[in-house]
Design goal:
By secondary structure, this protein is of the alpha+beta class. It has helices at residues 27-41, 51-64, 85-109, 116-144, 149-158, 160-163, 171-209, 213-224, 234-247, 251-263, 274-302, 308-312, 324-333, 335-339, 348-377, 390-405, 420-427, 463-482, 487-500, 555-576, 591-599, 629-635, 642-658, and strands spanning 22-23, 67-68, 441-442, 452-453, 506-511, 524-525, 531-533, 538-541, 545-549, 580-587, 605-613, 662-669. α7 packs antiparallel against α8 and α9 packs across α11. The N and C termini lie far apart (108 Å). Residues 1-21, 435-461 and 529-541 have low confidence and may be disordered.
Length: 675
């Protein structure tokens, strides 16, 4: 029996009330979705952050292929602070498919899948598919609350975060999908509870107002027939929360608000009390235990804390288990540890990272939060979103995680990408009209009537909309192709070099002002390398390949190191006849300084460019603006020199753009002249 309370007992969910379903054209969204897939298939050059390799591909590839890899310190068996279970799913499952398909593609097509391109592509395809889950969750929430899902889906899909970050093997990208899933299940529970509580309160009121026993029995039975809602999706929510915490312990910041909203559903009703709140909390914790135990066991076996032999001998104690989130918190609580990764001002997330990641939406969100704080200080409570509404859920899911993560002095933009989801839901309509490629169809669905066509929405431009699309386009191009864009092509080139070199030859590679080279892509033979590190640089050694990553170390010190390496290699060649090839990869903006060092140091060696990778933008070594002298002449031009100034400016701009390259130099020993 369907019950509809009278108008005075209905509760609105701010402005987000269930409405008649509206079928909206999604042509532009599908184009943007296709673009996301195409960018996944395009050979990756843009390199967002080393963690997209060194917390995923670099960790797992050695477990599936007999190659040498460098497992970062986070996965050190002595004190692991990151769980290996999520990377085993995100990277291990695609690699298992790659490994299974490779013999067939080689046999029938002559195509080997064990190439750097496919090593990157297969995990990225998995992440791309995973990212579309968040699109689906956004659509379902909008449809559930009768909101315009088209404008939100188009805005979501056009964000450069979805075009770049979401398809990379970053733990933050997994965190984005988990946050979206959590918000979907919580919002669904809120909508269901809203309806049941309204009906329950209405029937309770009717029960107490009834004047006869028959009427009371009727309302009592009707109330008993209402569906249970208090513990809906508890197991799913608890499992998602545990997965998120083991993926990145900072997920606590993103899960706090959704779980709180799930716990306090209906507390303003007569039928729900604090007893229900505590029961929900207890059951939630119990439901999270299976997933937590699974992760603890998986990590304990993976890092060697627990073995089947120990279980057979019943030699299992508290030290036989490892809880990586606890280790993570222990490590990050110590500020000295964070200093190794860089300390930032605590306002960086709010003032820099939010506008950088979310463009106009981030600015609108910050301004809205400022207005809310102002209204709260003036006790204007009606201007604030209702605590048990979808608006309140999304608003606090944006503000609270950013505020909590701002307490830590190490702040990177990627840490807060999950708040894109609530920002899009809340403020996407603020971007004015989104260009439409389809006919909008409105349908009531009543009496089986068909939907009629309505005129296409008109193209209307606004400053906010233009800024959104232009900003996201430029940042998508920057992170997809240009940022550290020479590193991965360099890895592919070195892979070819290692395959083509003489068997006994050693290859030495120096790098400067660039991110770490993913050694998994080189597919080095598993030779039980020796690894040493210092505060300034790293040496990763195999039998015939040596990588020296110098980061932002001053070029004179790098030059001295290369000179010593050349002498050592020449001595090895003279004594043991071991041939070698020595390369140095550096941004084009640093080549003049390196050439000057070479000319001023007794000509210890010579070098020449063997390969150029373009584009490559290294923020650590940007070209100097002093090279744009022609622009200064153009700004102070005279009528008789305008043509020459334009020509000089064009040359300077071209030369400046040409510096956004990664150069691979071949270093050769300069034989001393006989006297």
């Amino acid at each position: 029996m369907s019950l509809k309370p009278k108008n005075e007992y209905r509760r609105s969910i701010d402005d987000y009330q269930t409405a008649a379903p509206v079928r909206r054209g999604l042509g532009l969204y599908w184009i943007l979705a296709a673009l996301r897939i195409v960018l996944t298939f395009v050979s990756q050059t843009g390199y967002i952050h080393p963690d997209e390799f060194f917390q995923s591909i670099e960790v797992i590839s050695g477990d599936h292929f007999d190659i040498d890899v460098y497992k970062p310190w986070e996965f050190n068996a002595t004190f692991p602070i990151r769980s290996a279970f999520i990377p085993q799913v995100v990277v291990g499952l695609p690699y298992a498919i790659l490994k299974g398909l490779s013999p067939y593609t080689y046999h029938f097509l002559g195509l080997s899948l064990r190439r750097p391109y496919f090593f990157v592509l297969f995990p990225r395809l998995f992440m791309c598919a995973l990212s579309f889950l968040s699109d689906y969750f956004l659509y379902k929430i909008c449809y559930m609350y009768g909101q315009n899902y088209r404008v939100r889906l188009v805005t979501y899909a056009s964000s450069y975060v979805m075009l770049t970050y979401a398809t990379r093997t970053l733990s933050n990208s997994v965190e984005l999908v988990l946050t979206a899933a959590l918000l979907y299940f919580v919002s669904r529970c809120m909508a269901r509870s809203e309806k049941v509580v309204l009906q329950s309160d209405y029937l309770s009121k009717k029960y107490y107002e009834a004047t006869s026993v028959v009427e009371r029995v009727k309302y009592y039975k009707l109330r008993a027939l209402l569906p249970s809602h208090s513990l809906n999706d508890c197991f799913v929510l608890a499992t998602i929360t545990v997965i998120g915490i083991f993926n990145r312990p900072t997920f606590i910041a993103f899960a706090f608000i959704p779980i709180f909203f799930w716990l306090q559903r209906g507390l303003n009703s007569k039928s729900i009390g604090f007893k229900d709140f505590h029961i929900r909390m207890l059951v939630f914790v119990l439901c999270g235990l299976p997933a937590a135990l699974l992760f603890i066991l998986a990590d304990s076996f993976y890092f060697g804390y627990l073995t089947m032999a120990e279980i057979g001998r019943l030699e299992v104690g508290i030290d036989s288990f490892v809880v990586t989130p606890v280790n993570f918190l222990k490590y990050n609580v110590n500020t000295k540890n964070l200093e190794l990764h860089g300390l930032h001002p605590r306002f960086l997330h709010f003032l820099v990272n939010v506008p950088l990641l979310f463009n106009v939406l981030g600015i609108i969100g910050l301004l809205t939060c400022a207005k809310m704080i102002h209204s709260g200080l003036r006790a204007q409570w009606l201007h604030l979103p209702r605590l048990q509404s979808i608006v309140g859920l999304m608003t606090f899911t944006f503000v609270v995680p950013v505020a909590l993560l701002s307490l830590f002095p190490h702040q990177e933009a990627r840490f807060i990408i999950p708040v894109l989801f609530p920002l899009v839901f809340l403020y996407a309509p603020e971007l004015s009209q989104v260009p439409s490629l389809d006919i909008v169809r409105r349908c009531d669905g009543r009496n089986g009537e068909s939907c009629g066509a309505v005129k296409p929405t008109t193209w209307r431009r606004s400053g906010k909309l233009t800024l959104w699309y232009v900003g996201n386009l430029l940042l998508a191009l920057f992170y997809a192709f240009a940022h550290q864009g020479g590193v991965l092509p360099l890895a592919s080139h070195i892979t070819t070099e290692l395959e083509a070199k003489p068997h006994l030859a050693h290859v030495h590679l120096y790098t400067s002002y660039s991110y770490s080279l993913p050694t998994a892509l080189l597919q080095l033979r598993n030779t039980r390398r020796v690894y040493r590190s210092s505060s300034n640089h790293k040496y990763k050694l195999t039998r015939d390949f040596h990588l020296y990553e110098r980061g932002s170390e001053p070029l004179p010190r790098v030059f001295d190191s290369i000179a010593r390496r050349v002498r050592d290699c020449e001595e090895s060649f003279a004594a043991d006849r071991i041939p070698y090839r020595l390369y140095y990869a550096l941004p084009a903006s640093a080549i003049n300084e390196f050439a000057e060092l070479s000319s001023n140091n007794s000509h210890l060696f010579r070098f020449h460019v063997v390969k150029t990778f373009y584009p490559h933008i290294s923020v650590e070594k940007l070209p100097s603006l002093r090279s744009l002298d022609g622009l200064a002449h153009l700004l102070s031009l005279r009528s008789d020199s305008i043509f020459n100034a334009i020509v000089e400016t064009a040359k300077d701009v071209y030369g400046y753009v040409e510096q956004f390259r990664l150069l691979l130099l071949k270093i050769e020993y300069l034989v001393p002249e006989s006297r």
